[in-house]
């Protein structure tokens, strides 16, 4: 019986690289993205199923899981990867843009976990990996709302470890540094000129694949160019255990 994976933000970048890697290993993939042309292209490339939708809408996650169930009858792996830059200027605050960023980067993760959990449980358990960012571990002044949203999903991952364990589901997050994807394209020339190293999408996909295979839950994996992926350890609070 083949492994079935659901991947959001799968039309390009990290999501597409994860789809290709998992499909090469024999997995059946269900891909989700609002880029209709891109998600269809990758879907056909990996011989998978695909859905065009906005992940900031709960209905998209519900429909994606239903597609996995209808097409393959199970679900084993979920990569909640969709994301967008913030671009929110506090000197001219745009509430609509703020809600868009939080909807894609944070709300979609909540919706994805909630929608996938029943089918994961019915399939005997599985693994969820969320794409966060290095900006989810430190304050990132150039894009504070993006940083906020990525901190939020780290908090969710850590809080869900025990509740999901009861259903046989593991959860973790990858926190990549600057990655050469369409999301970062507007800043690529600046980053290259500044000598900042960039990851490839394939490097991040390898880390995601490794996290899917990890037996423990709650791992937050830091992925940096030229370095082995490293689990991040949050500082202990006085009188309390950390992790």
UniProtKB/TrEMBL annotation:
<keyword id="KW-0560">Oxidoreductase</keyword>
<dbReference type="GO" id="GO:0016491">
    <property type="term" value="F:oxidoreductase activity"/>
</dbReference>
<comment type="similarity">
    <text>Belongs to the short-chain dehydrogenases/reductases (SDR) family.</text>
</comment>
<dbReference type="InterPro" id="IPR002347">
    <property type="entry name" value="SDR_fam"/>
</dbReference>
<dbReference type="Pfam" id="PF00106">
    <property type="entry name" value="adh_short"/>
</dbReference>
<dbReference type="InterPro" id="IPR036291">
    <property type="entry name" value="NAD(P)-bd_dom_sf"/>
</dbReference>
<protein>
    <submittedName>
        <fullName>NADP-dependent 3-hydroxy acid dehydrogenase YdfG</fullName>
    </submittedName>
</protein>
């Amino acid at each position: 019986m083949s492994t079935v994976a659901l991947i959001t933000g799968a039309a390009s970048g990290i999501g597409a690289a994860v789809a290709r890697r998992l499909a090469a290993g024999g997995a059946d993939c269900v891909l989700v993205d609002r880029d209709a042309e891109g998600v269809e292209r990758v879907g056909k490339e990996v011989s998978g199923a695909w859905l065009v939708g906005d992940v900031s809408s709960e209905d998209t996650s519900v429909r994606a899981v239903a597609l996995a169930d209808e097409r393959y009858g199970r679900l084993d792996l979920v990569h909640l990867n969709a994301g967008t830059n913030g671009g929110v200027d506090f000197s001219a605050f745009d509430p609509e843009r703020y809600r868009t960023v939080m909807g894609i980067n944070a709300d979609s993760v909540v919706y994805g976990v909630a929608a996938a959990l029943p089918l994961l449980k019915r399939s005997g358990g599985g693994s969820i990996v969320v794409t966060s960012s290095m900006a989810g571990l430190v304050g990132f002044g150039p894009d504070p709302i993006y940083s906020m949203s990525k901190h939020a999903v780290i908090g969710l991952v850590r809080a869900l470890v025990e509740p999901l364990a009861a259903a046989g589901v593991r959860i973790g997050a990858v926190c990549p540094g600057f990655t050469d994807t369409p999301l970062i394209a507007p800043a690529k020339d600046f980053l290259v000129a500044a000598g900042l190293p960039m990851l490839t999408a394939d490097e991040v996909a390898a880390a995601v694949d490794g996290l899917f295979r990890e037996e423990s839950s709650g791992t937050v994996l830091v992925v940096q160019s030229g370095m082995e992926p490293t689990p991040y350890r949050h500082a202990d609070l006085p009188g309390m255990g950390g992790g």
